[in-house]
Amino acid sequence: MEFKLFSSLPDDAKKIRTEVFVCEQGFCEEFDALDEIAVHIVAYKGATTAGVCRFFRLNSSADCKDYVLGRLAVSKEFRGQKIGSEILNRAELAVKDLGGKTLRLHSQTRASGFYRANGYTAFGEEDEDEGCPHIWMIKSL
Hints:
The protein is of the alpha+beta class.
């Protein structure tokens, strides 16, 4: 497995996010201005894109130590191989390298068990994003 970091949204990440969030899950507002400021991680298995995520500072302050992870997706053919956990781990390491102390995310409620198993704790009230229940989660790095 190879992991690459990008400072702009690569086509490989667009493809996986469209496949998972738009085609499979029915989200319409997949791409946003945060893609322009985020670091994007793409996981490759051989020449094939296996999964993606993005992360960015919680706010624009240069001394901000809190980061937000989002858009973690694994292509259907690679699910069940712990690739999501590997991508998450790579994001955590990259955030630490940037001086980050916490990583938070807005998990689909149905995926919150995955994040709990990777050390994240839910906080706040459940809300909805495009009609899908979500919960905020956080992890100290």
